[in-house]
From TrEMBL:
Molecular functions per Gene Ontology: DNA binding; zinc ion binding
Protein name from the UniProt record: CCHC-type domain-containing protein
Ranges for domain CCHC-type: 152-168
Keywords: DNA recombination, DNA-binding, Metal-binding, Zinc, Zinc-finger
Listed Basic and acidic residues bias regions: 107-128
One of the GO biological process terms: DNA integration
Superkingdom in the source lineage: Eukaryota
Pfam short name (any one): zf-CCHC
Length: 561
């Protein structure tokens, strides 16, 4: 119990000491804060007073400057404004400065008057400087070339002239080669030809001509060596052909099997032009390259290179220079066997003639003599089972399918219905019209019937795609207003006294077409001998009509009204 009594006073003493310490600390902290705030406020007040004094002095100085030099300040501002904004510039300023200002209220008026005076003076100066009309024409500059033409020449690609006046065309009139038994006779012939060409007024490219007789020269891309009696392809052409072949093979080596048709046609043309030296081998070893080129949709379109075409390219890469090193004997070259045009004709580019001939050959009758000629005519008659316009339309549609099939490696004939469906899907995606799809479907049906194959268009997918195209890409039919008799009568009344033969002809065609319900192609095929005029009617014979597919002809009676 004593311990508790001792502890209680002790506890109270400790509490008092702690309270005193806290109070003392708080008082010291407040005193410190008061001291800091007093010092800061004093500094702030001093700074504000100094700043206010400086601002006041600055304003007073500006006011004094303005009051003492008011006119100069205002005038300088007006002068600066007008010199920058007016089109006449400092002319207005000079007019403004030359006339003193009476008061500030007339400053703007003075400025407008100064600008008006400056504009009048400027117009007067321009009138004084105007050039009077010349009594004589300008002297023509003899050094100026009036023959300069804009753009590029289509012949040589250079600027300054057009193809009609191209210097290269004038110089490259013809390439010729002459010779003789000995040097003297050859020299005499050369001088005679040169003299006659100059006498006739031809422009000769002397830098490209060889007038001195020699036994080895370059002509038409070939090296003619009369000393050894052989002909070689020029090295430049061999290098170009090898570069083209290496480029194509390098593209194929990188996995690219689709190349521009123009590139393949270029290498084929280069090889064919070397036929004089290489012989018929160039035609034999470019057949598959030709087939690739013929499958093009356009010259810029890509075509697929077949494995056989790649073998041909590999052959010419190795053999081109080796075969040219041997050359060919000049005596074996027969120029009469080289034709400008090689014409290969088949039944409308479908290969139908060859197909018909093969079928006849496989039959028991064979295909020799007269039967062979009949087999060839049969293909032509099969094509003529349709009208010319229909046949042309079917050919164009079938060629579109052929390009698609060859581009993706499909078999074009006989066609797979799934492949045809994919092709029609592509056309629908390109927003082709229903007429385009119908034309392709009918063309495929017709070609397969000619070859005796199963019709690939008789497929549920193809029928559904045709209906889908009509729903998605079809356009509403907008019917035209019919022509009435009142319109015809009004047209005749307007041209009642017309003497122009063309107008009378057109009006006659309109009347006959309206009376007989004739089409324009039927009217345009009528000639004078087809028309017979009687007292009470007109008889017209229609030699061709859409309703007369088998050319039986028919007479139409046109009665007078």
């Amino acid at each position: 119990m004593d311990t508790d009594m001792l502890s209680s006073p002790l506890r109270n003493a400790i509490s008092r000491e702690v309270s005193n310490a806290i109070s003392t600390s708080q008082q010291d902290l407040l005193n410190s804060i008061y001291g800091i705030m007093d010092s800061k406020l004093t500094n702030l007040q001093t700074t504000l007073q100094e700043s206010q004094q400086e601002i006041s002095q600055t304003q007073m100085a500006k006011m004094e400057e303005t009051l003492t030099d008011n006119y100069t300040f205002q005038r300088g501002r007006a002068t600066k404004t007008n010199s920058n904004s007016s089109q006449l510039g400092w002319k207005v300023v000079n007019e403004y400065v030359a006339n003193p200002i009476a008061e500030d209220s007339e400053d703007e008026r003075k400025m407008l008057r100064a600008q008006s005076r400056a504009e009048r003076k400027s117009k007067a100066e321009k009138t004084k400087k105007s050039i009077k009309p010349r009594q004589v024409p300008y002297a023509r500059n003899a050094d100026k070339d009036d023959s300069f033409k804009p753009g590029k020449c289509f012949n040589c690609g250079k600027r300054g002239h057009w193809a009609d006046n191209c210097p290269d065309r004038k110089q490259k009139i013809n390439d010729g080669l002459g010779g003789g038994k000995d040097f003297e006779s050859c020299q005499k012939s050369s001088q005679f030809v040169k003299f006659q060409l100059q006498k006739l007024g031809f422009l000769i490219a002397h830098e490209k001509c060889v007038w001195d007789p020699c036994q080895k020269l370059k002509w038409l891309g070939f090296i003619w060596n009369t000393e050894t009696g052989r002909i070689f392809v020029s090295p430049e052409r061999i290098d170009k052909a090898e570069q083209t072949v290496n480029y194509i093979l390098s593209e194929i080596g990188r996995g690219k099997v689709l190349l521009k048709a123009r590139i393949l046609a270029g290498i084929v043309g280069q090889l064919i032009s070397m036929q004089i030296v290489f012989g018929d081998l160039v035609r034999l070893r470019t057949r598959f390259l030709y087939a690739c080129v013929n499958g093009r949709a356009s010259w810029e379109a890509s075509v697929k290179i077949t494995s056989e075409a790649i073998d041909e390219l590999e052959f010419w890469r190795v053999s081109c220079r080796a075969r040219n090193s041997k050359g060919v004997n000049i005596s074996t070259v027969n120029f009469h066997d080289n034709f400008d045009v090689d014409l290969f004709c088949d039944a409308s580019c479908l290969g139908l003639r060859q197909h018909v001939v093969e079928i006849v050959e496989k039959s028991t009758v064979g295909c020799s003599g007269e039967l062979g000629k009949l087999a060839e005519k049969m293909s032509v008659y099969l094509i003529q089972s349709k009208s010319d316009n229909t046949t042309k339309k079917y050919f164009a549609s079938y060629n579109r399918w052929r390009s698609f099939a060859q581009g993706y490696g499909f078999n074009e004939l006989p066609a797979d219905p799934i492949h045809v469906s994919l092709f029609l899907t592509l056309l629908i995606d390109k927003k082709s019209s229903p007429c385009t799809l119908d034309s392709i479907i009918y063309a495929l049906k017709w070609v397969h019937e000619l070859y005796g194959y199963v019709d690939p268009t008789n497929n549920a997918y193809i029928h559904s795609l045709a209906q889908s195209c009509k729903r998605l890409n079809g356009k509403p039919v907008v019917k035209k207003d019919p022509v009435t008799s009142d319109i015809i009568l009004e047209l005749c009344k307007i041209n009642e006294f017309e003497n122009d033969l063309l107008i009378v002809r057109d009006l006659t065609m309109i009347l006959i077409g309206y009376a007989g319900f004739l089409r324009y192609d039927e009217l345009s095929s009528i000639t004078c001998r087809d028309v017979k005029i009687f007292d009470d009617h007109i008889s017209i014979f229609l030699p061709r009509s859409k309703t007369d597919q088998y050319r039986q002809g028919g007479k139409k009676m046109r009665f007078r009204s």
